[in-house]
Amino acid sequence: MTQPTTIRRVPGPQRQPAELLRTALTLASTGVPVLPLQAGKMPFGNCHQCANNACGGRPNMKTPGPCHCSGVCHAWAAATTDPTVIASPPWAAAWRRAVCVGYHPGGAGLTVVDLDDADAIGWARGFLPTTRTVPTTRGEHWIYRGTMTSRNAVRPGVDIKSAMSYARHLGPGTGTMSALPDAVRALAVKERSPARPVPHAVAVPVGVGGGECPHRTPAYLARGIAMAEHRITAASSAVHATVYRTFLAVLSRHGRCGCLTNTHITRLFTAAQARGETLRHCTDAWANARTTLGL
């Protein structure tokens, strides 16, 4: 029986401004762009010169535009590695009001997979390669080397924070950082959803060989397929995109080692058709996933 996931909760006492500033300067010295965050993990708002995008910046902090404000006005776009900016006014005043240090993962060449609960952590352990892990107040941050498009709610309890986004710094974490896998990139892919037709009999594509999975053990593959079935079955919306992303994740992990058999693929196709996907879509989604991964 699978043991329940235990979440290590991070204690929440507010850190002192001097400690936050020291942490920010240390991170900046390693090439990580930082910014102060206030209560609620929120960035500081615009100064009066930048209010209502008077500075030319776009809404939702997508870009600072032509603004040359030296403050912390633009969330991730204000993040910097310049120690003079970080320690001088008006940043110094922001650190006195801040409750934690934030950073721009994409600016540091990183991607954070934000796992909000035990179910999300269990999914990650079954689908994603191990990497550096940092405990959060509710779950874990899995940090990979590489950047990608940021996107929230890619699946229940999972957000991706990389380019044009910010994350809290919660400590150095444990484990060796891995390269950003295709399985994570696939989570941000949006596929168009056609009208839902009537299911047909299952047929599997050719070109997938059998064999022993060299990654861990046969049980690892079996668990991964079971979790993939559950992910498709449990999708409450965007089933079409969920099927594609699930196929992509499975192939990313097992498509090159020849361990997938027709039985495994039939199980995935059956789960997809039970949610109303057609055989044509299943076949196309599988082929598209293979093409994306160069298989």
Structure summarized in a few sentences:
The chain has about 300 residues and is α+β, with helices and mostly antiparallel strands.
Characterization of this structure:
- The protein is built from nine helices and ten strands.
- The two termini are 34 Å apart.
- Helices cover 35% and strands 14% of the residues.
- The chain has helices at 17-29, 83-87, 91-97, 118-127, 182-187, 218-234, 239-254, 262-274, 279-293, and strands at residues 34-38, 42-43, 100-103, 110-115, 132-135, 140-145, 151-155, 158-161, 167-168, 178-179.
- The strands form two sheets. Strands 4, 5, 6, 7, 8 and 10 form a six-stranded mixed β-sheet that branches. The protein has a four-stranded antiparallel β-sheet with strand order 2-1-3-9.
- Residues 9-13 and 191-204 have low confidence and may be disordered.
- With 295 residues, the protein is of the alpha+beta class.
- The chain is elongated, with a radius of gyration of 22 Å.
